Amino acid sequence: MAVQKSRKTPSRRGMRRSHDRIKGATLSEERATGEMHRRHHVSAEGFYRGRQVVEVAEEIEDVEDPE
Questions:
Q1: Residue 47: beta bridge partners?
Q2: Can you say how many angstroms the Cα of residue 53 is from the centroid of all Cα atoms in its chain?
Q3: Residue 63 region, left (φ>0) first, then alpha (ψ -120 to 50), else beta?
Q4: pTM beyond cutoff 0.90
């Protein structure tokens, strides 16, 4: 079994971990609408690779009764 000869310093540990940071999501522009969305995901308007694949229901505004 491998055993280290000496303890790793916090500096060396930080250098090793420097590549482990979380990167932002990769975004793509939808061809049909120009909307930005995550790669390999359906856009908010229901488009994927230039075609509408999901029918998105329109938002209905609540109208208050004037009582």
A1: 52
A2: 20
A3: beta
A4: no
Token pair for 57: 């229901």
23's tokens? 């990167």
Q: What is the pLDDT of residues 18-47, one digit of tens each?
A: 998 888 989 999 988 899 999 999 998 999
From CA 59, how far away is CA 57, in angstroms rounded? Answer: 6
Place of tokens 């000496």: 6
Q: If you write DSSP's letter for every residue of the chain in order, what string do you get?
A: ----SSPPPHHHHHHHHTT-PPPPPPEEE-TTT--EEETTS--TTSEETTEE-SPPPPP-PPPPP--
